[in-house]
Design brief:
The protein is built from 5 helices and 5 strands. It is an alpha+beta fold.
């Protein structure tokens, strides 16, 4: 049975609901989560741009953020299915990124977290996630290692 995706709580009139994104390891069929698989959550990010940022980093490692034009020209993740009317999006992380995250050491994850934070601040100022982005990446790297070892994939749910 597919996992139940928690729905956001209603917002007061005129308020913008927060965006929540989750990454989880799943079997080959979407929604069939492997027994014992866990996920990690990060608030207030756009998952497709985060996935592209991470993919660019592992293709061209550097502490410096690449120009926005390079990021926009990158091969962005594809939806597993078109977005639903309630705003739910599901992206499959590219296999090369899943492997790179599984193989990443602490230094690479720290550098990527710093670069990702810099990108988010340049795009959104101080209005970025209050989650610990290094901890988020470490959790995703553990999920990636699990996915690689079991032949599974990583998916991102955004709602």
């Amino acid at each position: 049975m597919p996992p139940k995706i928690p729905r956001p709580q209603p917002c007061p009139p005129g308020a913008t609901p927060p965006r929540r994104s989750s990454v989880g390891a799943a079997g080959e069929a979407v929604g069939l989560v492997r027994a014992g698989a866990h996920g990690t959550t990060c608030r207030f990010i756009e998952p497709d741009s985060a996935i592209a940022e991470w993919d660019v980093y592992f293709a061209q490692p550097s502490a410096d953020i690449p120009p926005l034009e390079q990021l926009l020209g990158w091969s962005w993740p594809e939806w597993v299915a078109p977005p639903l009317n309630d705003g739910v999006e599901v992206f499959a992380l590219p296999q090369r990124l899943t492997q790179a995250l599984a193989d990443a050491g602490s230094t690479e994850l720290e550098e990527l977290a710093a670069r990702w934070t810099t990108r988010l601040r340049s795009d959104d100022g101080d209005d970025i996630s209050d989650d610990d982005l290094l901890a988020v990446l470490q959790g995703i790297a553990r999920l990636a290692a699990s996915a690689v070892s079991t032949g599974g994939r990583l998916y991102s749910w955004s709602f």
